[in-house]
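Each lists sequence, tokenised fold; shown next:
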Amino acid sequence: MELPVADSQQSPTLAEVSRAVVSVAASLVTNVQRAVAGPTKVPTARDNAYFAMLADRARNQARDDLTREVAALLSTTPTRNLAKTR
């Protein structure tokens, strides 16, 4: 008696192929970066998080500075009464 066996080899889908290509490309870029810059110069996730935090602080400081400058301008600038039109 012979039992039917399903075909165990399926062709990869487009999503699987694209994931594999992206994975290989990422590995290649990482290896090239390590070879060119040296393993100690490759940024880590901790480095990326630290630099993102510094950028956030700088943006917040710039926004606060601008808010203070605008408030100072508004407090010292006399208000103008515009003439009514029609």
User: Anything to note?
Assistant: The mean pLDDT is 86. The CA atoms of residues 49 and 57 lie 12 Å apart. The chain has one domain: 15-76.
